[in-house]
Amino acid sequence: MKKKHFIAMTIICTMAAGCAEKAVETPEPQKEVVPAIELSNMDTTINPADDFFRYANNNWLKNNPIPEEYSSYGAFTEIDQHNEILIQDIINEVSKDTSAAQGSVAQKIRDFYNAGMDSVAIEQRGYTELLPYFEMIDNMNDKAQLPELLGKLHGDGIGGFFGAGGSPDPKNAEMVIMHLFQGGLSLTDRDDYLKEETQEMRDKYVEHVAKMFELTGTDAETAKAKAQGILALETELAKNSMSRVERRDPDKTYNMRTLSELQKATPNFDWNTYFKNAGAPMIESLNVGMPDFVAAMDKVILNTDLNTIKDYLRWKVIHGSASMLSSDLDAENFSFYGNYLYGQEVQQPRWRRILDATSSCLGEAVGQLYVEKHFPAEAKERMLNLVGNLRIALGERIKNLEWMSEETKAKALVKLDAFNVKIGYPDKWKDYSKYEVTPESYFENVHRAIRFENERDMAKIGKPVDKDEWFMTPQTVNAYYSPEMNEIVFPAAILQPPFFNMDADDAVNYGGIGVVIGHEMTHGFDDQGCKYDENGNLNNWWTEEDVVKFNERTAQLAKLFDEFQVRGYQINGQLTLGENIADLGGLNVAWDAYQMTDEAKANQSIDGFTPAQRFFISYGTIWRNNSRDKYLERQVVTDVHSPAEARVNRTLGSMPHFYEAFDIQPENKMYIAPEERAAIW
Q1: What is the pTM of this model?
Q2: Which of 67, 375, 501, 646 is the Cys-Cys partner for 371 at CB 3.0 to 4.6 Å?
Q3: Residue extents of the structural domains in the chain
Q4: Residue range 475-516, pLDDT digits in tens
Q5: Whole-angstrom distance, CA of residue 182 vs CA of residue 290
Q6: For the CA atoms of 444, 338, 53, 398, what is the dihedral angle to 10 degrees?
């Protein structure tokens, strides 16, 4: 992606004999116009009917090899890099301000960043900042003390055994309740512990855990024994964990229990003590997302030696803190999680990692400065118009569905009309006054940030949902749909080329950000989002017949992706189903919305491409991405999003207008027989 530059041009007037003196004027800064479609990124020697992903992106893929500090590199990464420069300028400016008042946002940003960049002090401390946690763990003399200890560790952001926190009640979305869910694993997926083909990973994991223990003062033989015990404990948790596909189903993960019912199911763990030490208010009832896991966890605790439990908790402390510690621990942590698992050749430079941490821990504080400098009002206005057009288009598609009854259509339209739309940045910024930041310790600043967020999270339980809250910062290159809030959210940072271009023709913007908008809207009607009503409640609003018809159609889409491989890696059509539904729906809705524009009606070609072709080229462009094999291997196991190539080639295969735009014939590789295509929204 080309970056936008503002170039101030100065006119220099030279005096010559007989030349009248003229006033010198400085014109307005000139903005570089970013091409709507960068033709040099395409490869027109490739038949778009055979491989549209490479037709749209092949020269970009060739000219943008993955930098050694990345495991994948694409359009999102390009915008992230551009944003990093903008955020770095903001933070550098703030970090040099020695006059910032104590307690001000500027002081907190400055001291957080500077403490993180003070690698000399961090190196000198080594792992000594972990010692208070080690002492807490060593002082546990009985398993009955585990709930108190675990509550304190969780409050500090140190994981172990399970997770807990506040979020809306899926069946009463106006209120925040406590949720309990499975956790405690240190590998990326439960199947990493269970499948024969991941044995090498487990062996490497044991080596890594042992090495981290050695680096924190344990002899090699003892460290290896501890690591093997930790693997055994985590394997027992994994055996009783839900799969990622199962966890996608909100009906399966909604299991309200009274505290006494939970306590009866887990007699070896005192929940009152845990919640008190985790900072939660009095809990009378809660959602136990995975009851079988929680009951099994109770037995794992009962049947595991106390010393192994202590080793496990010590490991979670080390694991969760490694990136904040001395270079030996940081490097070993990267060696396993960055290099071995994802193929990243070298670690990101320190400035970038600390920049990301600052932007995360002080997200809306940095975001407010980012928006003031880099988010024009006209971008928000144009986005609102786009959203309005896509809402109309989705409404018309719902009305015209042949497979859905009028009764269900009426309720779907009510839900669509109730969508809340957030664009750019929050109307109400987060208050960081209770978050203390000092220049002395990066480790402590991070953990204070975690405690600050945990206290905010716990304080929401039992109270009404704050409808104004955002769950992404303005500088985040992403977007989301929240089923409990029934809202679509588009942070300022994603509103940049290739997704959104103020200078581009409508075909390109509808094929880019228009599809993203439609994607998030369609999430409200994907295989799980459709289970929530207009108020965000988990509440079936479908007729039985329509549920059957809908499931038949989604099963066809899952089948299409189950049959698709990227570089030999098999996609899981059920794991990625929600995102694939949203991609296909987003394409259809954006296409229909684009047809409403004067430009589409005029049907004038640009650069030799029809508006329809430019729409689809734009769609292909936003998913341009190079990825390492190890990254791709992890992605198909853990990510609900399909790999980029599949999001283009497989999704377009079910898009009738694509066939017309590029004359796709049965002999072409992109072709899918009409009866085998997916048609949902």
Answers
A1: 0.93
A2: 375
A3: 128-325
A4: 999 999 999 999 999 999 999 999 999 999 999 999 999 999
A5: 6
A6: -50
